[in-house]
Amino acid sequence: MADVRSHLADVIDRARREDTPTIITRRGKQEAVVIDIQEYQRLREIAENAEEAWLNQLADEAESEGAEGSVSLEEMAALLRAQQG
Questions:
Q1: Among 9, 21, 30, 84, which is most buried by a count of CB atoms within 10 Å?
Q2: Are 31 and 56 in contact (CB under 8 A)?
Q3: Tens digit of each residue's pLDDT, the chain (85 residues)
Q4: What is the pLDDT of residue 40?
Q5: The pLDDT value given to residue 34
Q6: Per the UniProt record, which residue ranges are transmembrane (predicted)?
Q7: Beta strands per DSSP E along the chain
Q8: CA distance 39 to 16
């Protein structure tokens, strides 16, 4: 952590220019990672697409089992986000 504080500009430059992530530790425990913003956005998009695909699969499975007691895809997404958050 102390190294990051004193070399933050270098850590950011390395993430941006060299596409090299820096893992930040505190007392030997990994706490955070500094990555290029474009890489972060790419990873977020992958995660969102995976979540959407999973929700669509759940909806398809529920539809094939019948409509009784079912919820909409939007309701399911809200329930899952509430559980995660």
A1: 21
A2: no
A3: 677 778 888 888 888 888 889 899 989 999 999 999 999 999 999 999 998 898 888 878 877 776 666 677 788 888 888 888 6
A4: 94
A5: 93
A6: none
A7: 22-26, 29-34
A8: 9
Exposure of 68 in the CB half-sphere (CA atoms within 13 A):
1
Which residue carries 């959407």 as its tokens? 52
End-to-end C-alpha distance for the chain, whole angstroms: 27
The CA distance from 35 to 28, in Å, is 20
Contact 45, 39 (CB under 8 A): no
Structure tokens at 79: 């329930």
Distance CA 62, CA 83 (A): 20
- Cα 66 from Cα 59, distance rounded (Å): 11
Supply 47's token pair.
Answer: 């995660």
Torsion of CA 74, 78, 79, 80, to 10 degrees: 100
